[in-house]
Automatic annotation (TrEMBL):
Keywords: NAD, Oxidoreductase, Peroxisome. It holds the Pfam family Aldedh. Residues 18-488 form the Aldehyde dehydrogenase domain. Belongs to the aldehyde dehydrogenase family. This is betaine-aldehyde dehydrogenase. GO terms for molecular function: betaine-aldehyde dehydrogenase (NAD+) activity. The lineage of its organism: Eukaryota, Viridiplantae, Streptophyta, Embryophyta, Tracheophyta. It catalyses: betaine aldehyde + NAD(+) + H2O = glycine betaine + NADH + 2 H(+). PROSITE patterns: ALDEHYDE_DEHYDR_CYS (PS00070), ALDEHYDE_DEHYDR_GLU (PS00687). InterPro entries: Ald_DH/histidinol_DH, Ald_DH_C, Ald_DH_CS_CYS, Ald_DH_CS_GLU, Ald_DH_N, Aldehyde_DH_dom. The active site is at E262.
Length: 506
């Protein structure tokens, strides 16, 4: 088993340096796999947000913006690439910190850190490419005007992120925001902030100009809400629950502040009877909902099985599920760690007991693993006998819990897949690719996977419809989130425009 890392004691990262929170409060950091308190993080309040926003604002405006906002994309790219290089250098340490902070298996944390570095590199390349896209001419049907377009950073952005992929979800916002030339105040989740604070240390090491990125840790209502409602924050990018998303949108609306929202989901995975390799489909079904303990916004937590394969599929799914190693996430080969917190553990247990009391069957799991007396561990769980009115079918669990329904026809499968207020992701598994393409078109979601579940590619757009939010992260869409488009139009004739009469010279 890997040794737990030393937990640094950090302050708030504001204006390029470290500060204790104004009110001196701190929040304990609990390793969810052991329930031990392993450190603490600063608990920022509105006073600290004020300082962080002021630092971001002055970094944005410094020297007319020439140091950052109006510097070339190539200049900003150098910093982003330097951050990526440092992440790679510290990958093992960062992965261990993420593991003890979140409870996710060490191997998953390593993969997350790889993705973090790749995301910084990707947006470094887009920052450079942005230089060549400025002054793009607009073709007009007249000669007296000439128009071009400038893409400008929106300004100071507030980035509020969740705990399930702490540094990765922050990076999905920080990297494109900085690439665009914005300056930022990042507020990670109070449940897992350690690696985001280390990002502050990395920014310090590589000499990122002061105030370009500020990192404020603390509780949502104390440290997040003042960012959302701050008059000098020009945009909010939020990832988290639909409930918090609504609160943030309401606050931002008071100032007509743009928001992008990446919220929850209850995504379907539809599996047809024509699959020749049932194990391949079973593995994707497990990956779709047990990876990261199911604490994934896009988890395909509603499994729809064609009636002709349902029984065989479920037998095989249970056999595969029995093979998953649940252990301290620092142990070699761990594939299911603990969930993030006691609160989340209780919430998942309640979902399972409600499903049971509503008449569903717990086919596998449903309890604390017998060999793990301490820590917020919960077995990966498969629930059958589910009706569409049950809570387990309708609400996001955010835990390793799959609920299963059986269908007879393709149209019934589509109707069930779309029977949700959410619209983040969906998947279809079939050997008939035409059928897959057909279903991809009619699933109401921002992402559809064919013959897989969950691959996340930095180059491709990510985001949802309906109550899963709006706006897209990643790819070039992720950069556009932080840019505003300015039209510049010039009148270019020597003559008067000629609409009004020139006064006579008397
Ligand atoms: N769509 C996506 O890409 C995506 C990705 C990851 C997670 N999620 C969603 O995130 C949720 C789980 O994350 P969570 O429990 O951290 O969500 P959450 O909404 O509880 O918290 C998210 C962030 O918002 C902050 N916050 C809480 N109250 C606030 C307030 N009043 N004002 C401002 N900020 C506030 C929190 O401190 C945290 O930093 C799930 O619903 C999941 O589906 C979505
Ligand atoms: C996209 N992913 C899986 C990294 C994070 C969503 O919760």
């Amino acid at each position: 088993m890997a040794a737990p890392p030393a937990i640094p004691r950090r302050g708030l990262f504001i204006g390029g340096g470290w500060r204790e929170p104004t009110l001196g409060r701190r929040i304990p950091v609990i390793n969810p796999a052991t329930e031990d308190t392993i450190g603490d993080i600063p608990a920022a309040t509105a006073e600290d947000v004020e300082l962080a926003v002021a630092a971001a604002r002055s970094a944005f405006l410094l020297d007319g913006g020439s140091r950052w906002a109006r510097a070339s994309g190539a200049t900003r790219a150098k910093y982003l690439n330097a951050i990526a290089a440092k992440i790679k250098e510290k990958i093992s340490y960062l992965a261990l910190l993420e593991t003890v902070d979140s409870g996710k298996p060490k191997d998953e944390a390593v993969a997350d850190m790889d993705d973090v570095a790749a995301c910084f590199e990707y947006y470094a390349a887009l920052a450079e490419a942005l230089d060549g896209k400025q002054h793009a001419p607009i073709s007009l049907p007249m000669e007296e005007f000439k128009t071009y377009v400038l893409k400008e950073p929106i300004g100071v952005v507030g980035l509020i992120t969740p705990w399930n992929y702490p540094l990765l979800m922050a990076t999905w916002k920080v990297a494109p925001a900085l690439a665009a030339g914005c300056t930022a105040v990042l507020k990670p989740s109070e449940l897992a902030s350690l690696t985001c604070l280390e990002l502050g240390a990395i920014c310090e090491e590589i000499g990122l100009p002061s105030g370009v990125l500020n990192i404020i840790t603390g509780l949502g209502p104390d440290a997040g809400a003042p960012i959302a409602s701050h008059p000098h924050v020009d945009k909010i990018a939020f990832t988290g629950s639909t409930a918090t998303g609504k609160t943030i949108m309401t606050a931002a609306a008071q100032m007509v502040k743009p928001v992008s929202l990446e919220l929850g989901g209850k995504s379907p995975l539809v599996i047809f009877d024509d699959v020749a390799d049932i194990d391949k489909a079973v593995e994707w079904a497990m990956f779709g909902c047990f990876f990261n303990g199911g604490q994934v916004c896009s988890a395909t937590s509603r499994l729809l099985l064609h009636e002709k394969i349902a029984e065989r599929f479920l037998d095989r799914l249970v056999e595969w599920a029995k093979n998953i190693k649940i252990s301290d996430p620092l142990e070699e080969g761990c594939r299911l760690g603990s969930v993030i917190s006691k609160g989340q553990y209780e919430k998942i247990k309640k979902f399972i007991s409600t499903a049971r009391s509503e008449g569903a069957t717990i086919l596998h799991g449903g309890d604390r693993p017998k060999n793990l007396g301490k820590g917020f561990f919960i077995e990966h769980t498969i629930i059958t006998g589910v009706s569409t009115s049950m809570q387990i079918w309708r609400e996001e669990v955010f835990g390793p819990v799959i609920c299963v329904k059986v269908f007879k026809t393709e149209s019934e499968a589509v109707e069930l897949a779309n029977d949700t207020h959410y619209g983040l992701a969906g998947g279809v598994i079939s050997d008939d690719l035409e059928r897959c393409e057909r279903i991809a078109k009619v699933i109401h979601s921002g992402i559809v996977w064919i013959n897989c579940s969950q691959p996340t590619l930095v180059q491709a757009p990510w985001g949802g419809n309906k109550r899963s939010g709006f706006g897209r992260e990643l790819g070039e869409w992720g950069l556009e989130n932080y840019l505003s488009v300015k039209q510049v139009t010039r009148y270019c004739k020597d003559e008067l425009y000629g609409w009004y009469q020139r006064p006579s010279k008397l």
